[in-house]
Amino acid sequence: xxxKDLGFMTAHEFLKKYSSQKKRITTxxxxxxQLLGGGIETGxxxxxxxxxxxxxxxxxxxxxxNVQLPEKLGGLSSKAAFIDTEGTFNPLRIKQMSQALxxxxxxxxxxxxxxxxxxxxxxxxxxNNLKELVxxxxxxxxxxxSLINYFRSEFHGRKDLFRRQQELKKHLHVLNRLSLTENxxxxxxxxxxxxxxxxxxxxxVATGGHILAHTPISILHIRKAGxxxxxxxxxxxxxxxxxxAAFIITQEGIRDIPY
Length: 259
Hints:
Layout: H1 11-21, E1 24-25, H2 30-35, E2 40-41, E3 44-50, H3 56-66, E4 79-84, H4 91-100, H5 105-110, E5 112-116, H6 120-128, H7 130-137, E6 139-145, H8 149-154, H9 161-181, E7 185-190, E8 192-196, E9 202-206, H10 209-213, E10 218-224, E11 229-236, E12 243-250, E13 253-255
Parallel strand pairs: 3-7, 3-10, 4-5, 4-6, 6-7
Antiparallel strand pairs: 1-2, 8-9, 10-11, 11-12, 12-13
């Protein structure tokens, strides 16, 4: 029988390809990196959700700096793109994090491509332009802080819920396809809803419903455990166990807790 290429590969071939292509970006904390199998991975979407003030934006700032490090130090010697929907971007904070790693702040900031999205349409246009930016500028990290902001503000009530979820699904498809075809890390932050778990405590649940919950390769939840201490939980990942790690947010950035 004539051997024809039917478009399939063996699982062994896939593993070899996967292992050679998959890269990781250090978070700045060894304990968090260990939880994540080495750091934030390329080739997929990572969702980070938590309440206001838990450090989600600080976390993605650190990733924008760390991706520029050489691979031997946990980076990818690459650049980052940052889509800001809430006015959270702070170049002075990134400068601090850069100096703490003995990087030239002016170079670090030049290696981060920033876009302030003023509406959902603006956010979608920026997302559609990412592919060209990734190919042209060696971008290996894409951050959207936050993903869901304009979806919540521009679609009101239950009557718009179906349309909102369909638009969110299309948006995620663009991001997921980009992460896979270009082997980049896409990191999105998200808000939470408080859902009563029992009479005495509440469980934080990410917004976006099942469509968002089913798309990321990793889902992380950050919560406060003091003024600077944070607990990050790996809520879901197809091949890593659920678990938690602790870190602190210092003037230098995301770091391990000194013992």
